[in-house]
Write a structure and sequence with these properties.
The complex is a heterodimer.
Chain A: H1 3-35, H2 45-50, H3 54-60, H4 66-74, H5 83-96, H6 103-119, H7 126-150, H8 155-181, H9 193-206, H10 210-217, H11 223-232, H12 240-250, H13 258-272, H14 276-281, H15 284-307
Chain B: E1 18-20, E2 23-24, H1 29-37, H2 40-57, E3 60-65, E4 68-73, E5 77-84, H3 85-109, H4 114-117, H5 123-127, E6 149-156, E7 162-168, H6 175-188, H7 190-195, H8 204-213, E8 225-228, H9 237-247, E9 250-252, E10 257-259, E11 265-269, E12 272-275, E13 278-281, H10 285-288, H11 304-309, E14 314-316, H12 333-341, E15 353-354, H13 358-366, E16 371-375, E17 385-386, H14 392-404, E18 409-413, E19 419-424, E20 427-436, E21 438-441, E22 446-448, E23 453-457, E24 471-479, H15 485-489
Parallel strand pairs in B: 5-24, 8-9, 8-13, 13-14
Antiparallel strand pairs in B: 1-2, 3-4, 6-7, 6-21, 10-11, 11-12, 15-18, 16-17, 16-18, 19-20, 20-23, 21-22, 23-24
Classes of the chains: A mainly alpha, B alpha+beta.
Chain lengths: ~300, ~500
C-alpha cells in the first residue's frame, strides 16, 4: 500500500467521524439549553470551544449567537471543521482513492455531501435542524456499515479504523473537557442541584452513551461514574480506552509498529490509572490535556511510521 | 410499433446501419428489427435506464470549465454502432500492420535513421519535430517496442471507405468507456445479446496487463506494475482509476515515486520503498521527469528518464514515441509500411496535403474554404480550421499561420463522415461518428480491441466528436451476420415488417 493512500484512508476515517460527532454535539446542545434555567445558561460559546475553533470563529463572526454558531459548525465552508468541510475533505480523498473503495461508498458520500451543501442553509432553523442533523448522522453510519461489511479488512481498512478511533477518542476528551468546565459544582446552591444531573446526562447524550451507561452503571448519574464510563470503559465504542484498544488491535496487521505500540500503551496507562473521584473535583482540565497530548503522539507515531517515508 | 425507419433520412451520408431508408445493412438487421419492436415509451424508458446506469456506475469524465474541474456523466447514446465481422477482420489486420510499421519507424529514428538516409522520410520533417526527444537516441526498449498502446482514429467517408485519420501514440484515452459502454448496453438491451452474435470487448484490461508485464526488465519475479497519473484534475482521471482497478495495479502520482542512486525506481509504501518494474504512464513526456525535461513539472518524478535509459524500468509508452504522433509524420505512414514491411497499406490514409511542400501548400492556400487544416501537434480537435464552416477572418488567420510555419500544418479534404441513427430531442436522427480502436504491441504478438470506442457528434451536422466539446459515444458491435439464421432468410424484407 502506498504511503499517500494510507495517509488518505486514515484521514477519510477521521473526517467522517468528525462530521458525525459534530452533528451529535450540536443536536444535544440545543436540547440541553432548553432544559436549563435562565440563570445558568451558558449559551453557544462552549460548542465552539469543543472544536477548539474560537480564533477561526472570531475571524468572521462577532457574536456567539445560536444562528452564528450553528452556521459556523454546520455549513461554513471556511471553517475547516464544519460538517460541510469535513464531508468535502472526505469526498476529495475518495476521489483519489477510488481504486481502493467501492463505488457504492462513493455514491453515498456524494449524496450526503450534496444534501449538506444544497439543503444545509434551509436546515439552520431550530425546527428543521434536528431532522437535518439526523440525516447527517444516518448518512455517516451508513458509510461505516458499508465499509465494515463490504470492504476487505485489509491494511487500508486498518488505517481507516485508526483514523476513526483516534478522532473519536479525541472528540470524547474534548466533550468531557468543555462540558465539565461549565458544570455546576457540587458546592452550588441547592436549587441548582437537579440540573447537575441534566448536564452530565447531556455529556453522555452527546456521545450517544446515555442508554449504554444506564445499562452498565445502573446507578444515578454522577460525575465520577460518567467519567469512568467515557474514559475507561472497555466495551463502549466511544470511550477513550475502547478507541486506544482498537488502534492496538490494528497494529498486528501493519508493519514496523513498535513506536506506535509504545505511545498507545503509555496513553492507555494514563487513562487507566486516573483517579476519577478526585479529578471530578479538580484537575480534570489538566488531565484531559495530558490525554490529548498522548493522542497527538499516537497520530505523530502513525504518521512517522507510514506516511512520511 | 416503435421507430418508423422509413422516416429515418440517411441518404445524405454513408450510414453505418442503413443502406437506404428502412433497408438495414445485414449486420444491423436484427438490431433495427428489435428497435422497431419497442414502443416509443419503451425506448424512452431504456434511454433513461442507461442514463441512470451511467450515474450509478459513476462513469464520468472531467471538464475544465469556469475555472474549476467538473465531473460530468459520460454522454452515451443507446443505439449501438454495428460493424460486420468480415469488415472488422480486415481492419484489424490493417491496424496491426500500421502499429508494426510505426514501432519500426520510431526505433529507426532513435537509432540509425535509415529511413531518412534512404530519403523516404525527409530530414527536415524530423529536424522540426517537436516530439522528437534527443535524450532517447541510441535507446532500444525491450522487444523494440516504443508505442505499446496506440489509439488510431478511423472515419468512414461518403463512399464507404474506412480511413485512418490519425494515430495517437502518446497517451491515448477512451478505452475504459469502450468497456463501460458495453456494460450499459447489456443492462439496457439484454434480449439482443441472447439472439445476436456480438463479440465481447471486456478482455482489454487482461491484454493490457500482459502487455505491460511483458516489458518488465526483471524476468522471473512477478513484475511490479504501476499506473502513473497526473492526478484528479486530469480529464482522463476516471480512466486512470478504472484501469488500475481492473488490472489490480497501484495508481501512483509522481510524488509516490523516487529514483535511487542505483537508478532503480521505488514507490513509497507503508512497508518502505518498493521496486517498480513497469510504469504505465499517463503523463506527457515533457512532464515525466523534471531532471530530463520540464524542470518546473511537479507531476512526474525526478530521475525516471535516467532509470529508463539504464534499463531499470519500463516506461509505457516509451518517451519519444510521440515523434510518430504528428499529423505531418502521419502522411508518411503508408510509405513506412512499404519501407519497413514491404507491404501495401491495408488501411488507407485520408488524402493529405503537406504545407511544407511548396506545390501542395499553394493548393492548400487556394482551397482553404473546402479543406480541413490541422496543426501537426494538437489533440482533442483544437486548433483546426474547418474550411466549409470558417469565416473569412479565420481563413486569413490560417493563411498567415501556414505561411509562417508550413511544417506545422497539413490539410485534408473535408470528409463526409458517416452517420448512425442516434436518439436526439427531435427523435432519431443521423449523427456523424468515428471509431477509436486500441492496438497493443508486445513484440511477439499484437492485440486489437474488438471494435473500439465509437464517438458521435451529438449536435446536428457537427463533425466534432470529442467529449470535451460536446461529443457523445455509442457501444460498438462487431457482429457476425452469417451466424444469424434470421438474417439469411430475411434479406429481402425491410426491417419495418418484422415486428
Amino acid at each position: 500500500m502506498l504511503s499517500r493512500v494510507a495517509d488518505n484512508l486514515y484521514w477519510f476515517g477521521r473526517y467522517i467521524q468528525r462530521a458525525e460527532n459534530t452533528a451529535r454535539v450540536v443536536n444535544v446542545h440545543a436540547n440541553l439549553l432548553l432544559d436549563l434555567p435562565r440563570k445558568v445558561q451558558f449559551g453557544w460559546t462552549p460548542l465552539v470551544d469543543i472544536f477548539g475553533a474560537e480564533a477561526s470563529f472570531r475571524e468572521r463572526y462577532t457574536e456567539f449567537s445560536e444562528a452564528n454558531v450553528v452556521r459556523f459548525l454546520l455549513i461554513d465552508a471556511q471553517n475547516q471543521g464544519s460538517i460541510l468541510s469535513s464531508l468535502n475533505a472526505a469526498r476529495e480523498i475518495l476521489r483519489t482513492t477510488r481504486d481502493h473503495i467501492q463505488r457504492e461508498v462513493w455514491e453515498k458520500l456524494n449524496d450526503l455531501h450534496y444534501t449538506v451543501k444544497e439543503r444545509g442553509e434551509a436546515a439552520l432553523s431550530r425546527s428543521k435542524r434536528q431532522e437535518f442533523l439526523g440525516r447527517v448522522i444516518d448518512g455517516t453510519q451508513l458509510l461505516y456499515g458499508m465499509l465494515a461489511c463490504n470492504m476487505s479488512h485489509d491494511v487500508g481498512f486498518q488505517f481507516m479504523r485508526i483514523g476513526t478511533s483516534l478522532e473519536q477518542a479525541d472528540m470524547t476528551t474534548r466533550i468531557i473537557d468543555v462540558r465539565s468546565s461549565n458544570l455546576i459544582r457540587s458546592g452550588a446552591a441547592d436549587e441548582l442541584r437537579p440540573f447537575q444531573n441534566i448536564q452530565w446526562m447531556s455529556v453522555l447524550r452527546s456521545l450517544t452513551a446515555y442508554q449504554m451507561y444506564r445499562r452498565h452503571a445502573r446507578i444515578r448519574v454522577s460525575g465520577a461514574s460518567v467519567l469512568r464510563f467515557l474514559l475507561q470503559n472497555r466495551e463502549f465504542p466511544r470511550s477513550v480506552t475502547f478507541g486506544l484498544n482498537t488502534i492496538a488491535a490494528t497494529l498486528p496487521h501493519l508493519p514496523q509498529n513498535r513506536a506506535i505500540e509504545r505511545t498507545v500503551d503509555r496513553t492507555r496507562a494514563l487513562v487507566h490509572d486516573a483517579n476519577l473521584e478526585q479529578l471530578v473535583e479538580s484537575g480534570l482540565h489538566e488531565f484531559v490535556d495530558e490525554v490529548q497530548i498522548g493522542l497527538a503522539q499516537v497520530h505523530e507515531a502513525v504518521s512517522n511510521a507510514y506516511f512520511r517515508l | 410499433m416503435g421507430i418508423d425507419w422509413q422516416r429515418y433520412r440517411c441518404e445524405k451520408f454513408h450510414d453505418e446501419l442503413f443502406a437506404a431508408p428502412a433497408q438495414p445493412r445485414a449486420a444491423a438487421r436484427r438490431l433495427a428489427g428489435y428497435l422497431d419492436s419497442l414502443s416509443a415509451a419503451e425506448l424512452a424508458e431504456r434511454r433513461l435506464a442507461a442514463e441512470l446506469a451511467i450515474k450509478v456506475m459513476g462513469v464520468t469524465f472531467t471538464v475544465y470549465t469556469e475555472g474549476r474541474n467538473v465531473d460530468r456523466a459520460w454522454p452515451f447514446d443507446i443505439i449501438p454502432r454495428v460493424i460486420a465481422r468480415t469488415e472488422w477482420e480486415k481492419t484489424e489486420a490493417g491496424l496491426k500492420q500500421r502499429a508494426a510499421a510505426l514501432n519500426l519507424f520510431i526505433q529507426d529514428l532513435y537509432g540509425p535513421q535509415k529511413i531518412v538516409k534512404d530519403k523516404v522520410f525527409p530530414a527536415e520533417v524530423l529536424a522540426e519535430s517537436v516530439n522528437f526527444r534527443p535524450q532517447c537516441q541510441g535507446m532500444k526498449p525491450r522487444h523494440g517496442i516504443w508505442a505499446h498502446i496506440c489509439g488510431s482514429d478511423l472515419v468512414r467517408d461518403g463512399d464507404g471507405t474506412l480511413y485512418v485519420l490519425e494515430d495517437n501514440l502518446r497517451v491515448p484515452s477512451g478505452v475504459s468507456y469502450m468497456v463501460e459502454n458495453r456494460l450499459v448496453t447489456k443492462r439496457v438491451f439484454p434480449e439482443l445479446f441472447e439472439t445476436t452474435n456480438i463479440l465481447p470487448v471486456d478482455d482489454y484490461p487482461t491484454q493490457l496487463y500482459d502487455t505491460l508485464a511483458a516489458m518488465s526488465p526483471r524476468t522471473g519475479d512477478e513484475p511490479n506494475i504501476v499506473l502513473l497519473t497526473p492526478g484528479i484534475y486530469n480529464s482522463a482521471y476516471f480512466e486512470h482509476c478504472w484501469l488500475a482497478q481492473q488490472m489490480g495495479i497501484e495508481l501512483v502520482e509522481g510524488s509516490d515515486l523516487t529514483v535511487g542512486d542505483d537508478d532503480v525506481v521505488y514507490m513509497r509504501t507503508i512497508y518502505g520503498p518498493r521496486r517498480v518494474d513497469v510504469i504505465y504512464r499517463r503523463i506527457d513526456d515533457l512532464f515525466l521527469d523534471p531532471e530530463a525535461f520540464n524542470p518546473e513539472s511537479v507531476l512526474g518524478a525526478k530521475g525516471l528518464m535516467r532509470a529508463w535509459l539504464k534499463g531499470k524500468v519500463a516506461l509505457v509508452n516509451a518517451p519519444g514515441a510521440g515523434v510518430a504522433d504528428d499529423k505531418v509524420v502521419y502522411t508518411f505512414v503508408p510509405a513506412m509500411i512499404k519501407y519497413y514491411l514491404g507491404e501495401e497499406a491495408i488501411l488507407p490514409n485520408v488524402p493529405s496535403f503537406l504545407c511544407m511542400d511548396p506545390k501542395q501548400r499553394k493548393h492548400v492556400l487556394a482551397n482553404l474554404e473546402t479543406l480541413v487544416v490541422k496543426p501537426a501537434n494538437e489533440s482533442g480537435g483544437y486548433g483546426m480550421l474547418i474550411g466549409p464552416r470558417s469565416t473569412k477572418a479565420e481563413r486569413e488567420k490560417f493563411r498567415k499561420l501556414i505561411e509562417a510555419h508550413p511544417r506545422n500544418y497539413m490539410a485534408q479534404p473535408t470528409l463526409s463522415l458517416s452517420t448512425a441513427p442516434t436518439i436526439t430531442d427531435d427523435g432519431i436522427e443521423p449523427r456523424h461518428l468515428d471509431l477509436r480502436p486500441f492496438i497493443l504491441s508486445r513484440g511477439d504478438s499484437t492485440y486489437v480491441t474488438t471494435g473500439g470506442l465509437t464517438r458521435v457528434a451529438m449536435v446536428k451536422g457537427s463533425l466534432v466528436v470529442n467529449s470535451s466539446q460536446g461529443g457523445g459515444s455509442k457501444d460498438t458491435w462487431i457482429v457476425d451476420p452469417d451466424d444469424d439464421p434470421l438474417a439469411q432468410t430475411q434479406t429481402q424484407r425491410p426491417a419495418g415488417g418484422t415486428a
